[in-house]
Every structure is written in C-alpha cells, then in structure tokens.
Amino acid sequence: MADASSPSLSSSSSSSDSEISDSELDLYEQKYLHMLKTTNPRIKNPDGTLRCPFCAGKKKQGFIYKDLLQHATGIGASSARAPKLRATHLAFARFLQTELSDAAGPSAHLPPPKPPRRSDDDRFAWPWTGILVNVPISEESRVELERRLAGFSPVSMLPLRNVSDQENESSMGSVVVEFSKSWSGLKDAMAFENQMNASRFGKRDWEENGDRKEGFYGWIARGDDYESESRVGEYLRAHTELRTIPDVAKEESRNSGKLVAILSDEIEAKNENLRNLECKYNEIAMARQRVMEDKDKIHQAYNEEMRNMQRIARETARRIFEENVKLRLELDSKRKEVDLRCKQLDKFEAKSDGEKNILEDEKQKTAMENSSLELASMEQKKAEEDVMKLAEDHKKEKEAALAKILQLEKQIDQKQQLELEIEQLKGRLRVMKHLAEEEDLDLQERVDALNQKLEDEKECLENLNGALVSKERESNFELQEARKELITGLDDLLNGRTVIGIKRMGELDEKPFQVACKKRYSADDADTKAAELCSAWQEELKQPSWQPYKIVDVDGVKKV
User: Fold this and answer.
1) What per-residue string of b and e applies to 295-326 under the rule 16 or more CB within 10 Å gives b?
2) Burial level of 423, CB count in 10 A (0-12/13-18/19+)?
3) 450 pLDDT band (50/70/90 cuts)?
4) Which of 62, 94, 189, 464 has CA atoms 20 to 30 A from the CA of 289?
C-alpha cells in the first residue's frame, strides 16, 4: 500500500524522454505502471484524501477515490493531451483499480470506469508476435501484406488456414507476424497494433463487429490469444512463451550482466597481454640501448687508437725531419771545411814539389771525401723522399681504413634497424595471433604470410651478419698489417739510412808525411822531419785565411 511519506514521481517522469509518439503509448503505460508498483509513490495525504503523483505542481492536491480515478481516466482518454501525460495517467488509473481499490470505501456504489485494456494486457507472447485474421490465403494477399507491413520491420510471416477450409485454396485464414526479440521489435509491434486500432481494424473491432467483417484485423498476441484453442493459439504455445515487460527487462539485465562479466574478463586478459607485450618491448628497447652504448664505446676506442697512431706518426715524421735538418747543416759545415782545406793545399803546392805529390794525394782523398759527402747528401734526399712517400701511403691506407669503418658502421646500423623491425614484427605477430581467435580465415592467411616474411628477413639478417663479421675481421687484419708495416719501415729508415760515417776535419794523418820524408831524408831524420812538416801544416790549417789550392781560369772554367 502507498505511504504518505513516499517520494513523488513527477521528477522521475520528467527525467524520461521529453516526448513520445502515439504508437508508443501502450509501451510507456506498461513502463509507468511497473514504476508505480515498485517505487511506492506518495498518494495518501495526512487528512485521508488522495493525490496524483504526476500533478505535483497543481493547486488542488486532495481528492476522494472516485474523483481521483475520474481525473486519471479523463486525462488518459483525452487525445488533446500530450502522449506522455496520457500514458502516466492511464497507468495511474490502472494502479488505482488494482492496488488502491480498498480506498474507495463503502460509499463507492458507482461502477468504476471501463479500463482501456484487458486484465491480461501485461502478458505478451515472446518473441513479440502480431496476429492478422480474416486474411485471404493467396499469393496476391501475401504480396499485399508484405508491402503494407514493410514499415514495421517484421522478421517473418506465417499463414495459417482455418481447419474447416484446409482443401479450399482461396479460403480465409490467419497470419502470424513475428517481430525481433529486442525492444525495437516491441516498438514495431505496438506501432502495428496502434495503426490497426486507429483504422478500426483492431482486436476490439474484430470482437464487436460480429458477422459484418470485411478486410483483415490485427493486434499483438497476448495471454488470451496464447491460451485460445484456435490454430493461432496452438502455434503460439508451440513457438512462443508468455512474458511480461518487467520479466523481459530482468532477463535482458541478467544477460547484459553476464555479457559485461565476459567482456570484463576478456578486457582484463587483453590488458594482461598488453602489459606483457609492453614488458617485452621495454626489454628489447633496453637491449638495443645497451648495444648502442657498446657500439659507441667501440667507436670511441677506435677513434682513440687512431688518434694515438696519428700522433706517433706525426712525432716520428717530425723527429726524422729534425734529424735531416741537423744532418744537412753538418754536411754544409763539412763542405765548407773541405773547401777551406782545398785552398790551403793550393798554397802549399807552390812551396814544394815534393809536397805537391802529397797534396795530390790529399786532393784525391778530399775529392773522395767530397764524393762521399755528395753520395751521403743524395742518400739523405732519397731517404727524405722515401719518408714522404711512406707518410703518403700511410695517409691513403688510413683514409681507406676509415672508409671501410664507416661502411661497417652503416651496415651495423642497418643490421640493428632490421633487428628492431623484426622485434616489432614479432610483437605485431603475437598481437595478431592473440586476436586471431576472433577473426576469420583471411586473418590466418595474413598471419602465415607475415610468418614467412619474418623467416625470410631473419635469414637475410643472418647472412648479412655473417658478411659483416667477416668484413670486420678482414678490416682489422688489414689495419694491423698496415700498422706493422709502418713501424717496420720507420725502424729501417731510422736505423739504416741515417747512419753516415763522420770524420773529424782539421787533423792531418802523419803517415803520408813519413812516406815522403823517407824518400828525401835519411832514416834517422825522416821521422823528425815528418813530425815538423805535419805540425807546420796543422798550424796552417787552423788559419781561416790560408788557401792550400790555387784556382786559375782556363777558357772561362775555374780549375785548381
């Protein structure tokens, strides 16, 4: 029974759809009747009068039972009112008759107004089904029915002949029209019934017209149709079941809850798989980062080694050039000393014929020494040219090695890029395999093709990796060989070609003087005279202005 402290339904009714059509009137009437039965609205006032829960803003809020019932049925039957307002008051009138009939009291002797629907209107044949009666069973009639019912989206239409007219091909019969099981199917069925009622070919018209029946009549199959003994009733009992709208709503809620639970489990599984894929992706990214760091370290170590080799080569070349300059300065000094000695020997030639022979010998020795110095100078120049050539060859080999290293780095980058693409393809493949349970055969073919492509790319990557490793080993071997060859060449250059014999200039050999004095003096005086002559010549050589040779012009050519 309704309580005086219960909340009003005006707010809940205003939160529904703003407007409804006439074809949905019965559907919303059932909805609001169910709402009145379940929400326990405020109907009784403290003074014992009754109030309308859908007219909370009106001035008059106190009615007796008879006046309130007349108020509800009057608004529900008025076609000038809004369909939504009519549906709420029709539902309230049925609620008063079924739930608050004891509030009428003993003074209510007048019969209640006729309800707009039968007492079993809340039971429907489910799946939603419509009934057409007085229909000619023929092909032309079937085509006409399909055309007229196309706007209501029926699922199927089944003609049923009357039992007494089974052998008559043009007899009259019934047609069972099946609609979809969803709420849109109920909406189409209600629109079908409302149109038949509006054109006066509804169920009530079928029952009231008696024998004067022309055309076919239609309505929604309800409880009385389901329980009838006609062929339509037998078909409905065999293929449908009786349900109320709240029963259908509850079953749909249960199915929706199960579907939500299933979808939640699938979403959780997919999220878990996504988290696993993210972990694998992070592992691959960290591995790639480590590979890149190792590559940078190797590259830095190689650059450091190349800088050390270049520094050593520059220091070696600088040291060789400094030694060459020093040797060139020494050669120039020795050449000047030889020239000075030649001039001194020219002066001694005029003093003594015997000394002339000695001077000739000295001249020959000096010429030989000059020749040796010239040869040494030529050898030094040749050594410098070899050093320059070796440095140029080293530079070319270094550039070739750098080019090979750059090429190897590019190939390594390509290899790493291919590895990353392969990991991404593997990730995509795992995702596609996970989703393949809900896809068709075409997706399986795409997964197979992707597997084949991945295997081909893996084989190409292995071949490329082998080639890169082989090239890297060859390049390292060539670099080591070039380094050894450069070190060996520099050692030969420094240890072999720069060893030039040097004799101290300005000191005379006493042996030629002894030989000459033995020829001219006795054996006793020869050694003494040789020592005197050697000392005299030694003193003359110390004087820069002394010229031992006399230079004369012969036909424009200077000769000693």
Assistant:
1) eeeeeeebeeeeeebeeebeebbeebeeebee
2) middle
3) confident
4) 464
Give the whole-angstrom CA distance, residue 174 versus residue 78: 33
Region 21-41: mean pLDDT is 77
What average pLDDT score do residues 318-326 get?
Answer: 89
**Is residue 434 packed enough to be buried (19+ CB in 10 Å), middle (13-18) or exposed (0-12)?**
middle
Region of 215 (left: φ > 0; alpha: ψ -120 to 50; beta: rest) is left
Answer whether the bond into residue 127 is a cis peptide, omega within 30°. yes
DSSP bridge pairs for 553: 558
User: What is the structure's pLDDT at 298?
Assistant: 93
pLDDT of residue 179: 92
Instruction: Give dist(CA 465, CA 458) in Å, integer.
Output: 10
pLDDT tens-place string over residues 273-301: 888 898 899 999 999 999 999 999 998 99
Yes or no: say if 174 and 182 are a contact pair by the CB < 8 Å rule: no
Question: What is the reported pLDDT for 352?
Answer: 59
Q: H or E stretch including 51?
A: none
Backbone angles phi, psi at 551, to 5 degrees: -105, 125
Q: Are 505 and 481 in contact (CB under 8 A)?
A: no
For the cut 80, the answer to whether the pLDDT of residue 483 exceeds it is no
Contact 309, 479 (CB under 8 A): no
Reply yes or no on whether the pLDDT at 110 is more than 70: no
* Contact by Cβ (8 Å): 175, 135: yes
Distance CA 48, CA 480 (A): 114
User: Are the C-beta atoms of residues 498 and 383 closer than 8 Å to each other?
Assistant: yes
Cβ pair 192, 149 in contact under 8 A: yes
Place 16 in a pLDDT band, splitting at 50, 70 and 90. very low
d(CA 334, CA 340): 10
How far apart are alpha carbons 32 and 87 in whole angstroms? Answer: 8
Other Cβ atoms less than 10 A from the Cβ of 131: the count is 25
Structure letter (DSSP) for residue 45: -
> Could you give the percent of the chain with pLDDT greater than 70?
77
Bridge partner residues of 133 (DSSP): 217
Q: At what angle do helices 510-520 and 353-435 cross, to 10 degrees?
A: 160
Q: 32 near 87, Cβ under 8 Å?
A: yes
Strand ranges for 26-128 from DSSP E: 123-126
Give the Å distances, CA to CA, from 404 to 408, 488, 495. Answer: 6, 24, 33
Q: Report the DSSP beta bridge partners of residue 220.
A: 130
Joined tokens for residue 275: 């988290």
- CA pair distance 253, 29, nearest whole angstrom: 21
Largest CA distance in the chain: 193
Q: In Å, what is the CA distance from 319 to each residue of 165, 313, 477, 494, 552?
A: 129, 10, 29, 10, 44
Which H or E element spans position 160? strand 156-161
Residue indicated by tokens 């019912």: 149
